[in-house]
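Quick one: structure tokens for this chain, please?
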Amino acid sequence: LRKTKIGALHFDSRVHPILNSYYRLFYKDGKKTVNRDILDKLDALGIAVWYMDDGSYPKNSYSCTLHTNGFSHEENVLIKQWFEEKWDICPKITSFLKGIKRYYFLRFPAKESRKLIELIKPYIHQSMQYKTGNIFETKSETKRRNVLWEIDL
């Protein structure tokens, strides 16, 4: 565990035989993949950890994003279906073009974002609450933030 220049903590694991089964579970031919077996192992805590790592909630938006850009379109479809079937949360698949390659990720519209955040809220570390929009704010804090937002315009 070491601290980076921006104050984040970084962790590297050593190669250990106990980790080999996880590597085989997640990597095929050296490329990270996802399948239904992996997804079905996730509970609300697992989704919270995933979101704290790869999720975002822009300040001027009411929608969460799960940056699944490392996965194929087909894998994003699988993740989307899994959220719908298992959690009744319906994300949208969005994409962007970088050079000649198209990347896909999941965006959760406002109503679905609220459902996602409510599911994972008990597991969100205090240092990661900024990724949950204003769901942890009191009404007076939200009102104050909105007033400050209007002043900044």
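Confidence is low (pLDDT under 50) at residues 147-153.
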